[in-house]
Amino acid sequence: MGNYYQPEIETMPVEQIQKLQSERLTEQVKFVYDNVKFYRDRMDEKGVKPDDINGIEDLYKLPFVTKDDLRNEYPYGLLGVPLSDCVRIQSTSGTTGRRVVAFYTQEDIDVWDECCARAIVAAGGTKDDVCHVCYGYGLFTGGPGLNGGSHKVGCLTLPMSSGNTERQLQFMQDLGSTILCCTPSYAANLGESIKERGLKDKIKLKAGIFGAEPWTEEMRHNIEETLGIKAYDIYGLTEISGPGVSFECSEQAGMHIQEDHFIAEIINPDTGEVLPEGEVGELVFTCITKKAFPLLRYRTRDLCYLTRKPCSCGRTHIRMHKPMGRSDDMMIVKGVNVWPSQIESVILNQGYEANYQIVVDRIGNTDTIEVQVELTPQMAADSSVTIPEREKKIVSGLKSMLGITVDVKVVEPKSIVRSEGKAVRVVDRRNLYC
Ligand code: DLL
Prior knowledge:
By secondary structure, the chain is α/β, with parallel strands linked by helices. Helix 8 runs parallel beside helix 9 (217-227).
């Protein structure tokens, strides 16, 4: 293993991990109760006092935190430390209304970097590697997270960011990149470009660390074959820090959750009841070391199950199966989190009615998204605005709402099939969850 494998933590006997979690949770609950009014009010409402939480067995007593809570408390309502102790923000994709801004102290960043460093080492990374990071940099956590982890491991770090495939391939060859970090769809794209240009022999990649969006085992095999690498999954979310909340080891049999920093639970998304190991439900995280943005029992909306079956890599941290779906309607399209309600609000704001359909597909390795919007009868009778003009205006509204370009097709009144039950707003043909 490389120089950032931490066996004393990563292979700690389960009872010891749980003891550590209990100590950290107890402290963290006191910390948030004293420092965050939101938690104080919520716990008081539920009649829970910090003294009632003496270990992980008491976790269920705490209230959940949801994405709506984060929006309501935007921007500073969940801060656990004075703003002057924060050194960074990161943010989810989406609109002003939907955006979540997460804050970090320097210690929070150090922990996050450490989590990503462990993921890189688990993928075989050492200080001799050249780590090619083409997740986006900026507000998105992918680039900054893997960048920080790569520094910690001591790899030569290429902060490429996303896009500009020609430049990616040039640097990959010239600087001998050995570890590739990007979304699986971009990895597949790069693989295709390498194949088309006959560059496979000039590429030294040995491993890839891919996440931020769902991907199937078939996609993993294709990427492994075209790039000649082993492809490792990595999971995370902005609210909880970013990539590296969990990661795959060489067994590729679920992602180890970094239990010294996060406690995972699986709940029934309808009732909130905690489910036993092995059952599929909504993943919930409690951060036990983060100070600036300390989320307790945060509902991720990702559906999966947990397992503590021993892993032959020696790591004892619990594993999560890759997300098998979501308990809300969020889609990840071209790497961006998209809610149908965002699309609806743009359409309604431009005077259309809620007769629309969103069709998401994947052509080659690229996501496509088309929104079909129905004209109202009045609009159809109004010849002063042409259909292309209408489409252009919706495309531009959606671009500023979502940050991605969406194809728009304005269609005749009554041409979108009316549903007799729930409207089918989204047709996702990608089959991403396996
Ligand atoms: O996607 C953080 C990240 C960056 C993870 C780079 C891995 C690599 P968000 O933009 O906040 O953060 O999106 C979080 O993306 O709740 C999942 O639904 C989805 N997601 C993240 N990783 C995976 C994965 C980053 N490996 C949301 N498989 C999460 C499936 C994933 N879905």
